[in-house]
Amino acid sequence: MSILQVFTLFGALGMFLYGMNLMSSGLQKAAGDKLRGFLSAMTSNPFKGVMTGLGITALIQSSSATTVMVVSFVNAGLLTLVQAIGVIMGANIGTTVTAWLVAWLGFKADISILAIPLMIFGFLFSNSKQDKRKNIGELIVGFSLLFLGLSFMKESVPDLRETPAVLEFVTTWSSHGFGSVLLFLAFGTILTLILQSSSATMAITLIMLSMGWIPFSMACAMVLGENIGTTITANIAASVGNTQAKRAAMSHTIFNLFGVIWALILFKPFLRLVGFITESIFGLPNPASDGFVVSEATSAEGTAALYGLSMLHTLFNTINTLILVWFTKLISKIVCSIIRTPENQEKEVFKLKYISAGPLATPELSVEQAFNEVIHFAQISKNGAKYAQEAINETDNNKLNTLKEKLVKYEEISDRIEFEIVTFLNAVSAEEISESTSMKIKAMYKIIGELESLGDSGESISRILSRKNIHKKEFDAESIKNLNTMAEAVNDAYDAMITNLNAAHKGELVEISNAYNAEERLNNLRNDFRDAMIEDLENNRNNYQSNIYYIDIINAYEQMGDFMINISQDLEKAFIEK
Questions:
Q1: How far apart are the C-alpha atoms of 511 and 62, rounded to whole Å?
Q2: Could you tell me which residues come within 8 angstroms of residue 82 by beta carbon, excluding any fewer than 6 positions away?
Q3: Residues 457 and 490: beta-carbon distance below 8 Å
Q4: Looking at the predicted structure, is the pLDDT value of residue 161 above 60?
Q5: Both 372 and 311 in a single domain?
Q6: Cα(74)–Cα(59) distance, rounded to whole angstroms?
Q7: 380: which of 194, 207, 422, 511 lies 20 to 30 Å off by Cα?
Q8: Dist CA 185 CA 218 (whole Å)
Q9: Among 73-87, 182-196, 382-396, 500-514, where is mean pLDDT lowest?
Q10: How far is residue 137 CA from its own chain's centroid?
C-alpha cells in the first residue's frame, strides 16, 4: 500500500465525514422549528418517545443532534428525564438507517456515479436567495460528498487477497475464539472514539467486510463496539455540561452497555438469528453459516454480508429498546443515583444550563441553545430583583449585609453569563448562517446587554442602601410601602418580559402590549412618588437626605423597567413578522 493510497484513504474518510455533517446540517436547517415542535408534542409516553427519536434521527442522520435537543428540552422542563430516555432509545434505532443507506446505495447501486452530476443542482440551490433552497442545496452537496467519499474509500483500500502475508496476519486476529470477539469489539469502540462518528466507523466496517478482510462474526463484534464508542463521546461532551446533560448521556451509556452485554452472552445464537432473518427476507446466503466467505462485494455473498451487518445493527438496537422501554423509570432512578444533584443547588443555578458543551454542528440548533440560555439569564436576573426588595425591607444589619453580598454576587454572575453567551454567539456567527438566524443573533446580543444592566441595577440599589446606613438614615413606613409597590411593579415587568421571551422562542410572539403596560405603570408610579416626595420636602426639610436615597431607589427601579421594555422591543423587531 503506497503513501498516496494512505493519504487517499484518509482524504476519502474526511470527505465522507464532511459530507455526512453537511447533509445533516442542511436537513436540520430545512426542518428548523418543526423538529422542536414535533419533539415536544410526541413524547407523552415512552413508546411515542421512541418513535419520535427514531423518526427525527432517521431524518437528520445525527443521533447526537437529537440527543442535544432532548437534553435542552429536559433542562427547559418541556420533557422529563424518563421521556428523554425514550427518545434516546429511538435515536439509537434511527441512526441504523445510515448503515442501510450505505449498504444499499454505496455498495449495490453505486450512487457515486450520480454524485457529481448532483453537485450542479446542489450548487444552483445553494446560490439561491431563499434560505430554504440554500439548505436543500447544502443537503444535496452533503449527500453527494458522502457517497463520493465512500467510493474513494472502497477504491483506496487494498485487496488483501493479493498480499497473502498481510491477509494471514489479519486472519490471526480472528482465530482466538471469543477473545477475537472482544478484540474486535474494543477495536470498534476505539475507532468510533477517534472518528467521533459511529456512522463513519460503520462504513469502514462494511468496507472491511466486503473486501474480505474480516469474517462476518468479527464485523458484528465491531458494530457492538461502535455502540459503546458513541456513548463515550456523548459522555465526554456532557462532562462540561450540567447535571441533566450528564444524566441523559449516562442513560445512553447504560442502554447500550446492557445491550452489548446480552449480545455478547448470546453472541452465536444472536448471529444465527440475524443470518436466518437476512436469508428469509432477501433470499441471500446465510452470512452467519459455517464456511461463509465473501468473494467480492458485488457477489451474492457480499450482498448477504452487507445486509446481514446492517440487519444486526438494526436488530440489536430494536431488541434492546423493546426490552428496556419498559424500564425507563428504573433507568432514570439509576442515573439520578449515580449523578446526584449538587448539595449546593444555588451554585448549579448560576452555571450555564444549555451551552456548556459548546456550539452544535449547525448554527440553527446552536441559536436554540443560546435562546434557552437567554431565558435562563432573565430568570436569574429576576431572582436578583427579589433580593433587592428583601434588602429594602430588612432592618437587621447582619441579614442586610448578607443580602447586599448576594446582590454583588448576582452582578458578578450577570457579567460572567453575558461574557459566556457572547463568546458562544461569536462562535456561532463565524459559521455560515441564514438571514433569519443572523437577525436572531443580533437581537440576542442586545438582549443580554440589557439583562447585564439589570444585574447592575440590583447592585446599585445595594450601594444606595449602604450609603443610607452609613449616614444613619431610615425610611418611614410610607416610603417602605411605596418602594415595595415599585418592586412589585418591577416583578410584573419581569413576568411580562419573560413571557415575551418564551413566546418568541416558540415562534408565538404577536405583540408586546403587556410589556408596554408594565413600563407605563412603572413610569406613572415613579412620577407619583417623586411628586409626593417634592411636596414632603417643602413641608419637612429634615427628611431631605432620606428622601434623596428614597428617590434614587425609585429611579433605579424605573430604569430597570426601561431595560426590560428595550428587551421586548428587540424581540418585536426580530421575531414578529411584519
A1: 36
A2: 46, 328, 329, 332
A3: no
A4: no
A5: no
A6: 22
A7: 511
A8: 8
A9: 73-87
A10: 24
Show the domain range for 422: 350-575
C-alpha cell at 363: 448554527
pLDDT tens digits along 234-281: 676 566 556 766 787 788 889 999 999 999 999 999 999 999 998 899
Q: Are residues 83 and 180 in the same domain?
A: yes
Which residues touch 567 (CB under 8 Å, ≥6 apart)? Answer: 378, 446, 447, 450, 451, 497, 500, 501
pTM equals 0.60
In a domain, 345, yes or no: no
Give the gyration radius of the chain's Cα atoms. Answer: 30
Give the whole-angstrom CA distance, residue 125 versus residue 369: 28
User: Do you know the residue count of the chain?
Assistant: 578
Separation between Cα atoms, residue 129 and residue 368, nearest integer Å: 23
The mean pLDDT of 203-218, rounded to a whole number, is 83
Pair 162, 211 in one domain = yes
Task: Let me know whether 382 and 315 are in one domain.
Answer: no
- Asked if 160 and 296 count as a contact pair (C-beta separation under 8 A), the reply is no
C-alpha 382/C-alpha 491 separation (Å) is: 7
Q: Look at residues 152, 109, 115, 129 and name the one whose alpha carbon lies nearest to residue 10.
A: 152
